[in-house]
Design a protein that fits this description.
The structure holds 2 protein chains of 2 kinds. Chain A is mostly helical. Helices cover about 75% and strands about 0% of the residues of chain A. Chain A has helices at about 5-10, 20-50, 55-75, 75-85, 85-90, 90-105, 110-120, 125-145. In chain B, strand 1 and strand 2 form a beta hairpin. The longest helix of chain B is centred in the middle third of the chain and has 20 residues, at about 200-220. Classes of the chains: A mainly alpha, B alpha/beta. At the A-B interface, helix 4, helix 5 and helix 6 of A face helix 6 and helix 7 of B. Chain B: InterPro entries: SpoVAD (IPR010894), SpoVAD_sf (IPR038369), Thiolase-like (IPR016039).
Chain lengths: ~150, ~350
C-alpha cells in the first residue's frame, strides 16, 4: 500500500517516538526533587521560625513561586521544563512559570492590557478547573458527611 | 503562452535575481552557515525594545543591503512584494511604510519567500515592472508567542517540533544581467492530508511539497536528474524522508539530490528539535548560502521549493487539520556573467 493512500497511519513510521520511559524518569526525579526541597523547607520554617505547619506550608509555596518567577525571568525555567516535562510543570513552580512567562511576554503591550489581561492566558484554565472541581468535590464531601 | 502544463510558468524573457541580502539572529549565526549571512545579531532583540521591532529591523536591513548591493535606491524599484508570519503581516506592512513604493503584501506562511520571488519574476517577465524587490522574515520569539506559548513558558516540546528561524531575506528581480537567472516557477495548490499536530509541521507539509515537485516535473517533462539540487524550505528531519518516499512512490527518485533548508541552517547539536522553520528559513538559506554555492560554480541549476503550513492557533483549537502549500522557483547559474 502506498504512503499517500493511508497517510495519517503510515506517516507514524517517520515520526520520532517520544521516549516515554526516560521522560517519565526525568519527570519523576525533577518533580520529586522539587517536592523534597519543599518538605525540607517546611521543616526548616517550622524549626527556625517556630511556625504552625499550615503557615509553614504557605511560606513554602511562597518561596517556590518566588524562585520559579525569578528563574522564568532569567530565562532558565523553560529549559528546565524542556528537560523535566511534567516534573516541573505540575508543581506550583510550573503554575508560577505560566503566569510569569505570560506577563513577561505581553509586557510590550502595556501594564494593564498587556501584562494584567494576558497573565492568566495559560494559567486561566488551571484556575477555572481547580475551582470547578473543588466545588464538585465539596458538594460530594458535604453529601457524604451529612448522609452517613 | 508562458504557462506550461498545469501550474508552471516559464520565464521566456531573461529574468535575473540581480541581488539578494540576508540578516539573521543568534542561533542562525552560530549555525554552520553563520558566516554566509550579510548581517548577524548576537541577541534576539537585535538592539530593539520588542521582538516585533527586532523582526522588522531584520527585514529592513535585508532590504537596505539588497538595494546597496544592486547600487540602487528604493525609488528605482517598481514594486515591493513581502510577507511574514505575524497576524496582518505586520512586519511586511510596517517595513513597506519605510520604503514607499507600490507594495503587494503576500502570505503563504513559510512558502512566502518563493511565492514572492515567483510573482516578482512573473511581473518582470510580463513587462509589468522593471525591478521588483521581494522580502520575507520570521522571528523565533514573535512566532512562538503567536503560534505557541509564551517564550519563557516551561512546557515540553516533542522531537518533531521545529525551531522558527530568526532572520530575513530580500531579493531583487530585474532584467539586469546577473549570475542567477530565474527560469521557471511552479505555483502550488493547497494540500491537506489531515494532519492535526502543529508541533509536527514537517509531516503536514511534505504532501504539499511532493505535489508541487511532481507537478513541476510533469509540466516541464523533467526529472530530478536535470537539477543539481531540489531544495525544500522547512520540512525538517521529519518531513524530508516523507517527501522522498512520497515522490519515490510517484516514480521520482530524489536520492542525493534533495536538501532541506531547515536541516542546512542549524547543526544537529543546537537543540532545535527536528530543524529550522519559518518564512526566513528558506529565504536566508537560499539567498545567503545557495546563491553563494552557485557563484562558486558548485551548483548550476536548483529548484527551490518553499513549504508553508497554513495553520492558525484558532483553527487548531477548533479541531481543523493543517492545510499546506509549496511554491517552487528554478534558479540557474549563468556562465561567465556578472
Amino acid at each position: 500500500m502506498k504512503l499517500r493512500d493511508h497517510y495519517q497511519e503510515a506517516v507514524k513510521l517517520f515520526q520520532p517516538k517520544p521516549s516515554y520511559f526516560f521522560n517519565s524518569l526525568k519527570a519523576f526525579f525533577v518533580g520529586g526533587f522539587i517536592c523534597a526541597v519543599g518538605q525540607a523547607l517546611q521543616n526548616l520554617y517550622i524549626e527556625i521560625f517556630t511556625l504552625h505547619i499550615s503557615v509553614a506550608q504557605q511560606m513554602v509555596l511562597g518561596t517556590f513561586i518566588l524562585l520559579a518567577t525569578l528563574l522564568t525571568g532569567m530565562g532558565v525555567y523553560d529549559k528546565i521544563g524542556q528537560f523535566a516535562g511534567a516534573g516541573s510543570l505540575i508543581p506550583i513552580t510550573g503554575f508560577a512559570n505560566s503566569l510569569a512567562s505570560a506577563a513577561i511576554e505581553h509586557r510590550s503591550e502595556g501594564i494593564v492590557l498587556g501584562v494584567a489581561s494576558n497573565m492568566f492566558k495559560v494559567a486561566g484554565a488551571v484556575i477555572v478547573y481547580s475551582v470547578v472541581i473543588a466545588y464538585i468535590l465539596g458538594v460530594i464531601h458535604y453529601l457524604f458527611s451529612t448522609l452517613f | 503562452m508562458k504557462l506550461v502544463g498545469k501550474q508552471t510558468w516559464i520565464f521566456e524573457n531573461e529574468v535575473y535575481l540581480q541581488a539578494a541580502a540576508t540578516a539573521v539572529g543568534p542561533t542562525e549565526t552560530e549555525g554552520p552557515l553563520g558566516e554566509q549571512f550579510d548581517v548577524t545579531y548576537q541577541d534576539l532583540y537585535c538592539g530593539e525594545d520588542t521582538w516585533e521591532l527586532a523582526e522588522r529591523r531584520l527585514m529592513k536591513e535585508a532590504v537596505q543591503i539588497c538595494l546597496t548591493k544592486a547600487k540602487l535606491e528604493i525609488n528605482d524599484i517598481d514594486f515591493f512584494l513581502a510577507g511574514d508570519l505575524l497576524n496582518q503581516n505586520v512586519t511586511a506592512n510596517y517595513t513597506a511604510r519605510d520604503f514607499p513604493v507600490p507594495f503587494l503584501c503576500m502570505f503563504g506562511a513559510c512558502s512566502t519567500s518563493m511565492e514572492t520571488l515567483a510573482v516578482a519574476a512573473a511581473l518582470v517577465d510580463g513587462n509589468f515592472a522593471r525591478r521588483v524587490l521581494t522580502a520575507t522574515s520570521s522571528h523565533n520569539a514573535t512566532a512562538e508567542r503567536q503560534f505557541r506559548y509564551p517564550t519563557e513558558f516551561g512546557g515540553q516540546k516533542p522531537k518533531s517540533a521545529t525551531f522558527t528561524v530568526t532572520g530575513a531575506g530580500a531579493a531583487l528581480v530585474s532584467r539586469e544581467k546577473s549570475l542567477f537567472r530565474i527560469t521557471a516557477a511552479t505555483i502550488g495548490k493547497v494540500v491537506d492530508f489531515g494532519m492535526y499536530n502543529p508541533l509536527d509541521m514537517g509531516a503536514a507539509m511534505a504532501p504539499a511539497a511532493a505535489s508541487t515537485i511532481r507537478q513541476h516535473f510533469q509540466d516541464l517533462k523533467t526529472s530530478p536528474q536535470d537539477y543539481d539540487f531540489i531544495v525544500t524550505g522547512d520540512l525538517s528531519g521529519v518531513g524530508s524522508p516523507i517527501l522522498r518516499e512520497l515522490l519515490r512512490e510517484e516514480g521520482y527518485d530524489l536520492a542525493d539530490k534533495h536538501r532541506d533548508c531547515g536541516l542546512l541552517i542549524y547543526r544537529t547539536d543546537q537543540e532545535v528539535f527536528a530543524g529550522g522553520s519559518g518564512c526566513a528559513c528558506c529565504a536566508v538559506v537560499t539567498y545567503g548560502h545557495l546563491l553563494k554555492e552557485m557563484e562558486k560554480g558548485n551548483l548550476r541549476k536548483i529548484f527551490v521549493v518553499a513549504t508553508g503550513a497554513l495553520l492558525s492557533p484558532t483553527m487548531m483549537r477548533q479541531n481543523e487539520s493543517i492545510p499546506a502549500i509549496a511554491h517552487g522557483v528554478v534558479l540557474e547559474a549563468v556562465k561567465g556573467e556578472k
